[in-house]
Amino acid sequence: MTTLQSKWEELADIKDELAARDWFMGTSGNLAIKVSNEPLQFLVTASGKDKKKRTPEDFLLVNASGDLVEESNLKPSAETLLHCAIYEKTSSGCSLHVHTVANNVISELYGDKGKIDFQGQELIKAFGLWEEDDILSIPIIPNYAHIPHLAEAFKSHILADKGAVLIRNHGITVWGKDGFEAKKLLEACEFLFQYQLALHQIK
Ligand SMILES: CSC[C@@H](O)[C@@H](O)C(=O)COP(=O)(O)O
Ligand SMILES: [Zn+2]
Question: Which ligand is in closest contact with the Cα of 51?
Answer without folding.
Answer: 1
